[in-house]
Amino acid sequence: MKKTAHKPQNKRTALWLGLGSHCYLLLILLLVQNLMSLQSLDMGAPFWGWFAGSALSLTLMSYASLRWLQTIWPPQD
Amino acid sequence: MQHFVDLIAPWYMQIKFVHLSAVMAWIWSTSVAYLYYLLPAIRAWRRQPDDPAALKLRNWAMDRFDAGAQLEHIAFVVLLLSGALLYLCGGWTLSSGWMLLKLLIVLGLFLPIELLDIHLAHLGGNKQRVRNQQGDNAAEQAIQQHWKFLLLSTPVIIFYVSVVVYLAVVKPL
């Protein structure tokens, strides 16, 4: 079986999934809050702490998942 | 609108029951098929890509997975509709941080992912339909496209489902 576990694109893809999805949601959050004049969330230090921790967790989880699942990626890849 | 809200308001807890049932079905309905049927079939084919039996098994598992995803997608529609009813008759607003984040994830992330999944499983990307209409090569491409989608969306879905359930149950913000 061709192993693809250590391909550098695994890291890039995981970073895109983890950080990209968080930045995408943050962008919509800011848009919605501004458009609707909402002050639902206090964007102080705790918020950014949770944001960074959550983005890092998803990035690591995606990387682990890709490393495992790409070992069964189709051979044409 | 207010008349409609007054009409459904007494049924809030019953709607919540439907909503929670749909959420559970949406989250778990494809997990056994994915982990114990689709993955082993793809893994077996990956080990022996030239084996016609392994290829046949993989195609069968993918076709069945497409069909089984109907449960997930019906549950998703039910959870969206019941969620909208709960929002209306529960007096919820976006001034609650947890509700804002939850709706953001459901509508901004889950909805587009599920729409793409519905296309891949039941509409233009349905493997059985592609095989019948365009032949084996097109079906092979459709399978690889769907597998790539599953590969990328699975960790994202698992992670954000946990976040949404946490937000809904604990209401931390």
Structural class of chain A: mainly alpha
Major interchain interface with per-chain residue totals: A-B, 31 and 29 residues
Note the overall shape of chain A: elongated
Biggest sheet statistics of chain A:
none
Distance between the termini of chain A: 12 Å
CA-based gyration radius of chain A = 17 Å
Helix/strand class of chain B: mainly alpha
**SSE order of chain A, as H and E?**
HH
Number of separate strands of chain A: 0
Helix-residue proportion of chain B: over 70%
Could you give a short description of this structure?
By secondary structure, chain A is an all-alpha fold.
Write up what this structure looks like.
The complex is a heterodimer of chains A (77) and B (173). Chain A has 77 residues and is mainly alpha-helical. Helix content of chain A is 69%, strand content 0%. In chain A, helix 1 (8-35) packs antiparallel against helix 2 (45-69). Chain A is elongated and about 45 Å long. Helix content of chain B is 86%, strand content 0%. Chain B is built from seven helices and no strands. The longest helix of chain B has 38 residues, at 52-89. The A-B interface holds A 1, 13, 17, 21, 24-25, 28-29, 32-33, 36, 38-42, 54, 57-58, 61-62, 65-66, 69-70, 72-77 and B 39, 42-43, 46-47, 49, 94-97, 99-101, 104-105, 108-109, 144, 147, 151-152, 154-156, 158-160, 163, 173.
Strand and helix layout:
The complex is a heterodimer of chains A (77) and B (173).
Chain A: H1 8-35, H2 45-69
Chain B: H1 2-8, H2 12-28, H3 31-47, H4 52-89, H5 97-122, H6 127-134, H7 136-170
Helix pairs in contact in B: 2-4, 3-4, 4-5, 5-7, 6-7
Descriptors for this entry?
heterodimer, A: 77 residues, mainly alpha, 2 helices, disordered N terminus, B: 173 residues
